[in-house]
Amino acid sequence: MDIQAGQHHDESVGSVVTLDLAEGEKLHVLHPQQIIAYRGPSSGRSDKLMNIKGMYRKHKLIQADFTGACRLIAALPPGFSLKMIELEGGDDLLYDFRNLFWYSSGIHMRTKLLSMKNMLFSRDVIKMKFDGIGQIGLLTQGLVCQEQLHPTEPMYVDASSVIAYPENAQLELTVYGNHLASQHMNYHFKMTGHGTVLFHAGEHHRRLQQDMNDDGVIKRFLREVIPFGGVFIK
């Protein structure tokens, strides 16, 4: 399925993405509220409640199905970008539902109930998995990074930045480095396995900006070296 996406970016006000569907092509949009303009027959859009166990934390989730030929124009908030992933069958990645923008026809989305251990680590109950051949669109905060996992050599990834990881991956929630390093970092996923892990950099862009706008090197130093300094020193 060939979907042309043109992105016009302005960091201060967000961005606009244009999606063109050819005759008979179908797109399943999971954040339809972001569609701000549509060109095509009125019957080309059909909304429905998503069939997800428990409607995913008891929210009423709406999915909009678009059938071409048509054009969709979507608005993305500041700091968000669109990442397109090509699936060729046999995909092993488990995705965070919140990052999923759309998926094309030829792909089937299904829920994957996590193990109790992974539920505790990820603070989530289910992930999404795709079967088939086609494309999916991910909404991410900042750029998307993709790294290959190793079966024995662990990779540490900030837990708040993970978008997708292989179903076969072994996960452990931890920190790393010496005592000072482990005191002043977010929890990370220690990952081993086969396949790739996807993560975004948006959270860390904001943290650096906050550090650069901070009001003094002494306060920054005290926050770093004193346990819980970030809580008590404002």
UniProtKB/TrEMBL annotation:
This is AIM24 family protein. It comes from Paenibacillus terrae.
